[in-house]
Amino acid sequence: MQHSRNSMARRKTESTTQILSTLKAASSAMSHQMIQEELDIEVDRATIYRVLNRFCEDGMVHRVIGENGKQYFALCEGCEKENHSHNHFHFRCKNCGKVECLSREIEIKLPAGYVAQNFNGLISGVCAQCA
Amino acid sequence: MQHSRNSMARRKTESTTQILSTLKAASSAMSHQMIQEELDIEVDRATIYRVLNRFCEDGMVHRVIGENGKQYFALCEGCEKENHSHNHFHFRCKNCGKVECLSREIEIKLPAGYVAQNFNGLISGVCAQCA
DNA sequence: CTTATTATTGCAACACAGTCGCAATAGTAT
DNA sequence: ATACTATTGCGACTGTGTTGCAATAATAAG
Ligand SMILES: [Mn+2]
Ligand SMILES: [Mn+2]
Ligand SMILES: [Zn+2]
Ligand SMILES: [Zn+2]
């Protein structure tokens, strides 16, 4: 089977399937570390990052930057393959560390001539469970 | 003169005044590195961070987290000393690196029981000058 | 099934951001 | 001038995320 001219398709490995199902099982966005702790098998840190970056490239996962500067990854739910925008906020609880998607899509008007490529909205505080 | 019971007032030093005026001169948010490069005198990295953190504590400056996970600092303009909220977006140009405040204040509704402590909104892309 | 191709992995090394302890320095009040 | 202590520089440290390289393993082809 042919794929894009210069590259083969993604390969299905133990690491990729486990990371993917971990993200599916979680209802929230996870850091590389949270993922690593959930995995049944041992997977190298670098590999986890590479897998996640691939997932993002392929549009299966979106990346969130916390107010702590760290990356969190969440499965894409209702994503158009075409118009792949994740303009929604996330909430990170400073107590339990959970990072949730807030679902409502936001629209931000930019000054004339500005081109948006990436959206990152995050509110941190204390979640209902921890309050 | 008395200040809060356990701590002396802030002291005016060459570092603090220079960093402050650098932020005033800049129309945009700056990283610790951008600041360091602008300074006339040499100031240690750790000191710059400490000064900036103090400015944030005192509510003179607000902190922005880029989609690159890095911190940027901008002077507070029209800030109430009481209700000190910076619920506006920022735009970071991936080409020239400039980080601008988008001024319009945003309101985000959180699920019941959630308490917001911090807002970070950032859109990255290409600015009008670089487009 | 066997073989060839090459995507994926583990490991080590790296770059960088941001923090912190400690001793030296320098504002500020008296 | 002196005492007090906030601030600084330095070095060391933690943690995140990336990358080069050689070994491994998924997949297609025969
Ligand atoms: Mn999300
Ligand atoms: Mn701002
Ligand atoms: Zn919580
Ligand atoms: Zn630009």
From TrEMBL, chains A, B:
CC cofactor: Zn(2+)
Cofactor binding, per record: Binds 1 zinc ion per subunit.
Highest taxon above the source species: Bacteria
Gene3D superfamilies per the UniProt record, alphabetical: Winged helix-like DNA-binding domain superfamily/Winged helix DNA-binding domain (1.10.10.10)
Presence of the UniProt keyword Metal-binding in the record: yes
Binding site for Zn(2+): C93, C96
GO BP term, pick one: regulation of secondary metabolite biosynthetic process
SUPFAM superfamilies in UniProt: Winged helix' DNA-binding domain
Keywords, in A-Z order: Metal-binding, Zinc
A GO term, aspect molecular function: transcription cis-regulatory region binding
Keyword match DNA repair: no
Full protein name: Fur family transcriptional regulator, ferric uptake regulator
Organism: Gracilimonas mengyeensis
